[in-house]
Amino acid sequence: MSRNQQSSWHYTRQKDILSVTPVHLEVVSERATDLELCTPETLRRTQEELQWYRSLYENTPSVYFTLDATGKILSVNQFGADSLGYRREQLIQTSIFNLFEESDKQRLSNAFKELLTVSPESEITNWEFRLNARKIVWVKIAARILPTEEANPLILMVCEDITAQKQTEDLLRESEQRFHTMADTAPVMLWMSGSDSLCNFFNQSWLNFTGRSLEQEQGLGWLENVHPEDQDFCFKTYESAFNARAKFKMEYRLKRHDGNYRWILDSGVPRSTSTGNFAGYIGSCIDITERKLTEVALQETQEAAQAQFDEIESLNRLKDEFLSTVSHELRTPLTNMKMAIQMLGISLKKEQNFLLEIDKPETERSKAARYFQILDNECDREINLINNFLDLQKLDNVAKPLVLETIQLQQWLCRVLQVFQARNRNISQQELQINIAANLPPLTCDPFSLERILIELLTNACKFSPPEAQITLSAQLKSKQIQFQVINTGVEIPTTEIPLIFNKFYRIPSNDPWKQGGTGLGLALVQKLTLSLGGTIEVESQSNCTCFTILLPVSSEG
């Protein structure tokens, strides 16, 4: 007989593998004629099979007990005794209840009573109990009554070691408890969802904020407190991120427990199990209402400022257009007046010795000569005002293209000073000096603009210097720049006024002892022209001495 064939004993007693005898299995034939028919070979094979079943029973990796109705241990397999930390002889004839914790003994006793009274076919499955054994702490029990013809029933109980599983569950439970404690004490609102996308946890900060219970928030309940205008956006943002397993951030309005809606920044990240499987999302929320209000206020302020700026720009544009128009309209009659004055001078020269009268000191001139000179000077003054203003308008509105030339400063500065003296022979009563360094390199710049700058500064110096005072024009090399200085004495500019003197139409109050007058445009034009040449201008004034310093690069670029 092979192991795959069923013996007569196996067929009739397949549910009764263990005998009542505590330490070994016995073969009991049902009929004597069966034994008489067995040959020695058959008996040998039967014994081998029994020995195989015995080895299988002893070494099966579970704890097998055979108990009587009182719970006395009648047999235990070798693997089971070893796993419990006992010798088999120490367990036989002892109570099974001695192996269990005091708190679980009554539960096991009640289970056995139910098993013995309900039905012979009933069984206990998947009951978990704690042991006080040496090695195993937790077991899962399956038990049933063994079919037997004897009066006293026998119980087969199989114990599976679940100690490691229970320890893992305890650690997980402890970890979850720590997480819940940390989450509930965190100063931000936290939430979690499962792999089904439904939210299953909200910390105490969230519940306190919304004034709702955990049960109300779970699933999609949290959406009920989201502002109706934001609900669709929130759900689609979360759903899109969930399907992509991606991080997300979203801002929405959430109703607080007092009924007010607050702006919330919600950040969510995917979470995974220890094996790397997707487990859902965890997220945090912070109240950003104050930030949103600040952003709105800032946006409104910026919009108002932009509107104001646009209005000012529009007004400036209208002003510039108006002044430009007026200036052009003024230039035409002034040009005619200048031509008429010149023609008058020619006529007077023919009729009278007019040139001699003009060259006399002012007190000795005839009335006609004095009136003519006043008329000519004032006409020039008005023409100069209009020209300066128009030039400023051009510089403000569009960058003037530079006409670059290379000039030799020694000769060029002398010519500029001569031009200035010729134009201002009647008002220039000061001593003009020129100081030019010998090592000056050629300067590449717009000579017209530079001449305009220097003549304006010299004119300004003459206006505010007493007669016979000294005015100096100097030029020298400073590193890779040419330094021009116009220095005059007699009037000091107050320190508080220096930052203002380059503003259009600005004139220093009570600072014109010789009543020379002015438009307040000259220095503004000087600064604009200097900047257009790529240079800088500074002014120092102390001890009744004023110095304007201009620095220009040796090579200017338009």
UniProtKB/TrEMBL annotation:
<dbReference type="InterPro" id="IPR000014">
    <property type="entry name" value="PAS"/>
</dbReference>
<keyword id="KW-0597">Phosphoprotein</keyword>
<dbReference type="Pfam" id="PF02518">
    <property type="entry name" value="HATPase_c"/>
</dbReference>
<dbReference type="Pfam" id="PF08447">
    <property type="entry name" value="PAS_3"/>
</dbReference>
<dbReference type="InterPro" id="IPR036097">
    <property type="entry name" value="HisK_dim/P_sf"/>
</dbReference>
<protein>
    <recommendedName>
        <fullName>histidine kinase</fullName>
        <ecNumber>2.7.13.3</ecNumber>
    </recommendedName>
</protein>
<dbReference type="InterPro" id="IPR003594">
    <property type="entry name" value="HATPase_dom"/>
</dbReference>
<keyword id="KW-0808">Transferase</keyword>
<dbReference type="Pfam" id="PF13426">
    <property type="entry name" value="PAS_9"/>
</dbReference>
<dbReference type="GO" id="GO:0000155">
    <property type="term" value="F:phosphorelay sensor kinase activity"/>
</dbReference>
<dbReference type="InterPro" id="IPR052162">
    <property type="entry name" value="Sensor_kinase/Photoreceptor"/>
</dbReference>
<dbReference type="Pfam" id="PF00512">
    <property type="entry name" value="HisKA"/>
</dbReference>
<dbReference type="InterPro" id="IPR036890">
    <property type="entry name" value="HATPase_C_sf"/>
</dbReference>
<dbReference type="InterPro" id="IPR003661">
    <property type="entry name" value="HisK_dim/P_dom"/>
</dbReference>
<dbReference type="InterPro" id="IPR035965">
    <property type="entry name" value="PAS-like_dom_sf"/>
</dbReference>
<dbReference type="InterPro" id="IPR000700">
    <property type="entry name" value="PAS-assoc_C"/>
</dbReference>
<dbReference type="InterPro" id="IPR013655">
    <property type="entry name" value="PAS_fold_3"/>
</dbReference>
<dbReference type="InterPro" id="IPR001610">
    <property type="entry name" value="PAC"/>
</dbReference>
<keyword id="KW-0902">Two-component regulatory system</keyword>
<feature type="domain" description="PAS">
    <location>
        <begin position="175"/>
        <end position="245"/>
    </location>
</feature>
<feature type="domain" description="PAS">
    <location>
        <begin position="49"/>
        <end position="119"/>
    </location>
</feature>
<dbReference type="InterPro" id="IPR005467">
    <property type="entry name" value="His_kinase_dom"/>
</dbReference>
<feature type="domain" description="PAC">
    <location>
        <begin position="248"/>
        <end position="300"/>
    </location>
</feature>
<feature type="domain" description="Histidine kinase">
    <location>
        <begin position="325"/>
        <end position="556"/>
    </location>
</feature>
<keyword id="KW-0418">Kinase</keyword>
<dbReference type="InterPro" id="IPR004358">
    <property type="entry name" value="Sig_transdc_His_kin-like_C"/>
</dbReference>
